[in-house]
Amino acid sequence: MEPKKTPLHQKHIQEKGRIIDFAGWLLPVEYRSMLSEAKAARISCGIFDASHMGELLVKGPRAVDFLQKLTSNDISSLAFGRMQYNLLLNEDAGIIDDLMVYRKEKDLLCVVNASNKDKALAWLMKNSSTGIVIEDVSSKTALISLQGPTAHNIIREVFGRDFEELRYMFFLERKIEGRDILVSRSGYTAEDGFEIYTDWDEAGLWWDKFVSAGKKYGLTFCGLGARDILRIEAGYPLYGHEIDEEINPYEASLGWAVKLERKFMARDKLLKIREKELKRKRVGFIMQSRALVRQGYPVYSGASKIGEVTSGTYSPNLERFIGMAYVGKDYARIGTKISVEVRGKHYEAEIAKFSFIGPKTKKNSFKEAA
């Protein structure tokens, strides 16, 4: 199949973005430099095209009850206008996808990974019941993300103070210039930021307004490379790297997104998993020397292999090489010394706490907002 293009594809071409195929979409991996883009998002503001993400509406008077059966977190705890990080699980407690759930007044908006949209939709449809309507609005919905400490200034100039004063993991829906807009204070970076959902055909109009307003606030075009660096710095999992259907939430260090006090499909399985000793855990680590690690590189304690790297990068904000891995549970303690094999050589590393970028971002953490 031909790769898909977002409504902002020509904007990326005009800015000389380096385009790659990502999950069947043509998207910029970088414009000038992914390292400088990742720094800009922590110092000023980065603008990202995330229109490849999937958007599914779950409608009906029992929409909350329906989605509660299939997810691990507690959607019923959300007031209207709040959003939540959640996990869509199969019967064996494997992760079908990690998603954001927006509790709107009449329905639930589920924002899922582009690579998993069809799978998540099929799972919801398979388990739906009378009165539940599931609508895939991905092809109608564009998503622009503004991330960084000056993002609120840009939002204020384009949309006004109502949006600037949003709290983290809250959202507002409004008509601006006669156009429907949903803005949430959220993002995949652990920075302050906003995600803006708009009509597919109007994405270019809003993109240009953000770019114009952002000139005096250090706005920088950011691609997938910077997005990946920022999420690793934040300790956030990426589907196909840290999580998949063979991994359960406790292994993935996502137990905080599991609410066992209520009933849902995978609850009994998770109770058994929690009662037993886990064999492995997702951890973060900081390299003690200059070595870039990648997914699949083996992790050692002494001469014993204890796990495998899932993601690695150079952090321009820490000026260190960092990564995530699954290791045996006995080696998952913060401060544990390990080594990673890179092209036949072993390089020392140390298990570190998520997030890597420090306590200043706690208020912008999915976990802290749960």
Can you put this structure into words, describing what you see?
The structure is a single chain. This protein has 370 residues and is an alpha+beta fold. Among the domains are: 143 residues, Probable tRNA modification gtpase trme, domain 1 (Gyrase A, domain 2); 77 residues, Beta Barrel (Elongation Factor Tu (Ef-tu), domain 3). It is built from ten helices and 20 strands. A six-stranded mixed sheet has the order 11-12-13-10-4-14, with helices on both faces. Strand 12 and strand 13 form a beta hairpin. Helix 2 packs across helix 8 and helix 5 crosses helix 7. The longest helix is centred in the middle third of the chain and has 12 residues. The chain starts with a strand and ends with a helix. The model has no long low-confidence stretch (mean pLDDT 95).
Spatial strand sequence of the major β-sheet: 11-12-13-10-4-14
Task: Name the CATH superfamily classification of the domain at 4-51 and 139-233.
Answer: Probable tRNA modification gtpase trme, domain 1
Number of strands: 20
What's the multimeric state?
single chain
What structural class do you assign from the helix and strand content?
Answer: alpha+beta
Largest sheet: 6 strands, mixed
What is the helix content? 10-25%
Shape field: globular
- The CATH topology of the domain at 4-51 and 139-233 is given as Gyrase A, domain 2
Strand content: 25-35%
Q: Using the 3D structure, state the CATH architecture of the domain at 4-51 and 139-233.
A: 2-Layer Sandwich
State the order of secondary-structure elements, H for helix, E for strand.
EHEEHEEHEEEHEEHHEEEHEHHEEEEEEH
Look at the structure and give the mean pLDDT. 95
Unreliable runs: none
Taking all Cα atoms into account, the compactness measure Rg is 20 Å
Distance between the termini: 39 Å
Number of helical regions = 10
CATH class annotation of the domain at 4-51 and 139-233:
Alpha Beta
